[in-house]
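Purpose: get a first structural picture of the assembly so the mutagenesis plan has something to point at.
Setup: two entries, given in the order below. No constraints added.
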Amino acid sequence: MSSHAEEKGRLWGLLAEYETVPAVLEAAARVRDAGYRYFDVHTPIPIHGLDEAMGIQVSRLPWLVAGCGAVGASTGLLLQWWTNAVDYPFIISAKPYFGLPAAIPVTFELTVLLAAIGAFVGMLVANGLPQFFHPLFRLERFRRASNDRFFISIEARDPKFDPRATRALLESSGGRPVLEVEG
Amino acid sequence: MRAMVDLGNEPRVLGEKASPVVRGGWLAAGVGLVAALALGALSGQGWRGFFFAYLHAWAFFASIALGALFFVMLQHLTNAGWSVVVRRLAEAMASTLPLLALLFVPIAVGLGELYHWSHADAVAADPLLQWKSGYLNTPFFLIRCALYLGVWVWLARFFVGRSLAQDTSGDVAHTLAMRRRAAPAMFLFAFTVTFAAFDLLMSLDPHWYSTMLGVYYFAGAAVGFFASLILFSYLVQRAGFLRRAITREHYHDLGKLLFAFTVFWAYISFSQFMLMWYANIPEETLFYLHRQEHGWGWAGLALVFGHFLLPFLALLSRGPKRRKGALAVAAGWLLIMHWLDLYWFVIPVQSEHATLNWASLALAVGLAGALMASMLHRVRATSLVPERDPRLMESLTFENA
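Result (structure tokens, whole complex):
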């Protein structure tokens, strides 16, 4: 990636590299304890206990999914009640205009559909996706995050961020090397 | 990553601590059976009420043991690691199947009271029963039942026996043998449970038929089993065993399975109902019509809310599944609902009006006592975890992501 002269010096954050799972877990816990909020851990494999080490709170996404499901259920019921019993009453095979058993499948499907869309779109939005470029991609070394190295990145926008103190923290936690990432 | 639990100083053999429960179980068995027999002898209708209560109680406890057998086979089929610390408890529950096979005898004795189609004069007066008599006749019925019971006892002996043998030998070949046979065993299990449900439950009303009844019984069995396993784990831990081996992570997974099968039961039972409601064919709707009149409708509504809606909302989120006290309450509730589900299926054939069959309650206590006593008597000398299962370590350190 090209870096124009005027962009030089605009720091996005710091990136520290670790060799082992225990090392990155311990470092993540130290970054968490130091009070940082805008930081992330990059790993090629899922690590159990990483959420806790990073201090990640329980996701609020389930509430969105529940809300979407409730909207789906009531939409399904109201739609069938209104079309079958109010707008165009029509007797089909001697059933009541609005029979609850017959309305359940559509209600169920709409509940699942809206809940699934809520989960999918909500997850994307909460993660800031889709995103086609990330400053970390400027670093050649970062490619190993999908292969055999673990990384911690701390963003400069974090209120606790200080170029020197943050670097010291990452280095003392075992990060080798600690690199600057341009924005 | 969770630290490795050292099983060295973890109490995991019941030993003498089981003795009071075993004695209490046999006492409950005696009291329950005598009470049920007394109720049967004093009843104005003869032994009919007793035999229906007995079939209900037997189907209830058999469903839990069958659910346990299903769970054990499923863990081997999928090569599951997380469940190893609770698998021995499920194996103990599945090993009640030989006793349940013995306890089938009263059903064979009461065949004439239970099954309308077993009377020659009833068949002679009924063209539909004549059509079905090639399948629904007493000798063939008893042969089939013997076959189902034989298959279940055989499967339980194989999977429980190999697991216990591994405790002493530590041979991985046992695990591999169980994994290889789990898939064909699952086929055998599915066919026998489906046809057992057709024969024992559906033929109570020989005019009515539902191709979904086999899976309906299975879904209830899974709910009953997971509820029982959660309670069993909870009580074993309360008694001071496996305190650190079974963690909230295991309860979380058991809770997920309990939730999933509660939803599955609702899906199956609603599908059965809706298809019959929509098609509106008299011989099919008769089943539901009968269970909506004379007070039985309340039992049906109790199932809609108590067996599905309430537990669905209670177990939906993560929290209650990870708190074992809350989960145990939900499990106890669902176990009662599973009992009511089978009651709602069996007892309306005996009694047109909704009643509480007291013999059903007495036999629930009696059979529970007998099965628990024999189960604990059997497992008290062995470890409560598969000591040398190659996946034990994985289970001890298991964590939900």
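Residues 138-169 of chain B form the longest helix (32 residues).
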